[in-house]
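Internal ticket #5521
Category: modeling
Description: The requester needs a full-assembly model to guide mutagenesis choices. All entity lines are attached below as received. Residue total reported by intake: 1254.
Assigned to: D.W.
Attached entities:
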Amino acid sequence: MSAATPASQSSGGVSPANAGPQDAAQSANPTDRLVLEYLRSRGHKSAEKALLEAIDGGSVDASAKTTVSPEDLVKNLAVYAQKSNRPGENVLRESTSVLQELTTMGNPTNIQNLISSLGSVGAEEILSVDPTDKQEGFRELEAWVEGSLDMYRPEFRPILFPIFCHFHLDLVQRGFKEAALRFYSTFASSLAPMHNATLHHLSTLLLPSHVQNDELAQRFRNEKYVIKMSRSGFGLLVGWLTEGVGGEALGAGEGFSGERGKRGRSAVMRVVNNHLRFDVTAASTTAVSPNAWEESTGLLSSLISQPSTSTSIPNPHSFNASKGELKLGPAPVSEELSAETERVLRERAMMDRDPGAQYDLHHLRPAAVPGVTAPSENDLLPHPPTFKTIDVQREVEKVRDARKRIRLEPSTLNSVDLNSAQGGAARARALPSICAYTLHDVGEGAPCCTFSPDITLMAAGFSESYIRLWSLKGEKLKGLRNDFSLSSIRDSGSVSKLQEKEGSTTRKLIGHSGPVYSLSFDPLSGSAAPPKHLLSASADATARLWSLDTMTNVVAYRGHQNPVWDVQWSPMGIYFATASRDRTARLWSTDRTSCLRVYAGHLSDVDCVRFHPNSLYLATGSSDWTARLWDVQRGSCVRVFIGHQGTLSTLAISPDGRYLASAGEDLAINLWDLGSGRRIKKMTGHTASIYSLAFSAESSMLVSGGADWTVRCWDTKSTGGPAKARENGANESGGARALGEEENNETSDLLATFPTKRTPITNVHFTPRNLCLVSGTYLAPDSR
Amino acid sequence: MSKPKAKAAQTHQAGVYKPDSVRDVAESLGISNLSDAVASSLASDVEYRIHQVVEEASRFMRHARRTTITTSDIDQALRVLNIEPLYGHSNNPPAFRRALPFPHLASVGPVYFVEDEEIDFERVLREEKITLPKGVSWAAHWLAVEGIQPLIPENPPAIPKDIDQDISKSPPQTNAGFPPTTPSENRPAIKKQQQQQQQQLVKQVLSRELQLYYTRLTSSLLPPSTSDVAKRTAALASLRHDAGLQALLPYLIRWVGEGVVTSLKEGAQSENDGKTLEVLLDVISSVLDNNTLFIEPYLHQMLPAILSTLLHSTLPPSHATHLRTSAAQTLSRLLTQHSTTYPSLSPRIMKTLLVALISADKSKGTREGAIRGLVGIGKEAVRKGLVEGGGVKVVGSECAPGESGPLVDSVMSALQVLQPPSDMPESLEPTDDADAATIDQLRNVLGDFFAEKLYGDKALALGILGSISR
């Protein structure tokens, strides 16, 4: 995929077509004089006189300001022409037909001159504001695309969308609201399946000022829309734009040959020249897959920051390649800590007289994942030089978890007939056990719900601005009393005496003043002990740290100007990241109230944030339809993932550190290779928003939960793709795949679907031992 | 603002927020001479702003993990857009009501408003019925165990694909309700319509589980050609013993009734119809057997089905005898169970049967059915109908001499109900005086045909005669 060569190619290819009007525009200064002459010689209707007066005024204005360009003048003329005669567009059509009439009749030379000059600039420009032109032009383009050869059609289709958008914006900007609405209603339906969100947004723009102020519209205006095309396809397009040849649908008749056809084409060409950029590949046409289309088409230049000097076509792959290799291996564990962990493990093995415990030591050092570089100690975020007891406990527990883990091997499902006896066993080996925690009687809703790493606690954030904590083990949650004298505290024992005498298994944490959108338990104690801290993010633009010893709010981190959508601890504790509506993600450390890093670059809300397991990188998902990977320390964007066709809702990074899974409002889950930044596959099957994703401990399986009240299991290692017509039996294994035929958008890597009664799944969580926990809020059928 | 002008503006404007609304607002602020252009562009702008707010609110909705926008989302959106929030909209429950249509302005379209209930504070305080809502609670259950979803109440019922479709789509295409043998063209149409109606009724009232049960039950019972015997037996057993089917009863009975009517309507000559009727009778008797069901209110709906089967003139030849016998048995069971609580029941049935037996130009089938029915009702009914009412005479007069067949057999067996045949029959001797008198009497009562048949058994004949005189 060469990005540099096509650039020159494309501009070279199109510019000759563009040259005509440009050149003529140079010599347009006498135009106004010619216009006056021409109108003076006409004057057979009073209406035309009014027009004349209007133009007089316009030309006076123009002459007063010498800097007025001929194009502006002509546009002004057009506006006057429109105003002088009542019914908007009609007058234009009339006047242009008059022009055409005039060209056919013999006329005085000065008028011929006028017409010729108008023909090159004036008429062209005047007609360019005729709304019917756009309609005609787009209809022709659509007919041409649909009438093209099968092999080119997928390549040409993407061109329709940007041209539609620009025509629509042009119409709105020129004030032809009705024409714009008509244009939209005529053509939007054919583009709707792919671009529904954008189209709807554009349809809300109704006045020129909206176009000026709307962000998306301005992006369309100011950025080049990149379209990928093969060389031969591009040649055909240029041929059509200039000559109107080829691709004519059968029975389309003289559609392209007439004057209107030419004008329509020139309108298309204007957009092509000004707003489109063709990424012409040398590859044959068949190689451009729909995936490539999703990844390398669109308004890319602002998504991919480039040095201003660079003239190459923005391409996510070249951007990702330019950022160099990533260190995706597991984080190193300090020598002392691992030695101590080993000692504890040996001791425990002796005490338990457990011969299997010897095996534990193999798990102690994380096996290097082949093909990725592991970071060194120096690459990590700064952390305390010594380790604590809890660190050893955590590492020990990690080893024990690794040994006791239920191994999930989805690949075994592929080879076995699921209805046979072995099929059941294969399922058991491949698919997880899922425990669902359902919240009942939730008032306005619980946007988030999360489990502590040792699954002793569950916390839910509510729309009513509070957080509720539950002990899943049924223990009493006790804070500390407030009525004590400082002098009485001498050691840790006396602190624990301050614990409240009574408590319940649930606890309400109050402090936020807006809906709580995200919660995160601190990972420091791992699965060894209950966490000590909880982080929360809320619509009140703060993130808060809660101590689970005192059950109170400790710090409020202010800095974001807008609601904070997501918060997550770094894998080693101490640091955490937030994602906000203010288009930034930020890095914080718990001991400072101001942020350490701001990750800016997204063009819209940052909706979700996840740390890479070695804490070197941070992944963010945004409403600008992209996900990004940031270097935590440098604060620079190192990968951009383009391919979603909607807002991203959630992310997950695999525990082995190699993959990123992202889910979007396009109801797809994309799996990305972090190292190359390329998309591995797209997994579809959900029928409503996806709220949460989680990888199994071996990274072999992805579990997703969403608003369609289902939990779905995906095989990350299989190739995916559209579901093959599987044998009936294999498809319907044990009632798990209970959904009907109509959902044929399921890709073949969907292993199982587990519906709940009426519970949207807001959180999916894998324990280190591969038990899957999901949580959600039960929607009573009568509510709403 | 003149009317035609407003109308013209209407046609130009395609948006949601109409220039008229702007003009109304302007008038309320004391600006009366708002020009069309201003109103229309203001309307466009207002619409754009509304969309802006809604787009922003939808982000809050998404992050709140909801799929419906609430007023709080709008509030949040207004806040971040730096607009003063709209106060006074409580979050729950968002009860929007539709206003009555304006008769004078047809073009306005539906208007919705928030139901704002007036609360009398004093009354609320006096009543002291303020209850705190139950707090949030959680419950855990296994959604899947090693990849298999356990069938527990917390999980949705596992639904095989085809049935799921039947329920989700209201016009059931392949719902096996009736035998697929469709000789005529109009029949499937009628049938489908009936099914649809029935399906809709079922949908409205029944819980999803019962609906499922109903669909599966009916599909395993009928058509008899496709459903296998084991399934059918299981279904009948379930009907016979399972509790909790009360809600289903009206639908089941209706289903049976319609099944009987459809089968009989076409003359009921095919083997299939016979089987269908047989199954339907089984269903009725199963329902009668089930002592958890309160069946009395539905008796009058069940009887037509039974009586039609019993008395229909032409039942499929292969099944006729069996069908009539079992219908009679069902009838007798029904009467023994319910005649105590419903005293007028047996007289009414008796009357029906008698009419079928005695009145002119009834087919042999009907007569046979009537006789079997009378036997089912009991000895007394046989006596009254056959002997006293002259049923045997009528039948006998229709029979050619020397004829035999189900009808004759049925009469004979009915007569034997009155007096069990003796083991060692002693024939009547016409030469004997006493016997001759008996023969005369027999001929009188039963007619020649059947009197002759009774010559062989003196005891029987005397018994029958004795039953009359008694």
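Resolution: model delivered.
Comment from assignee: The longest strand of chain B covers residues 137-144.
Ticket closed.
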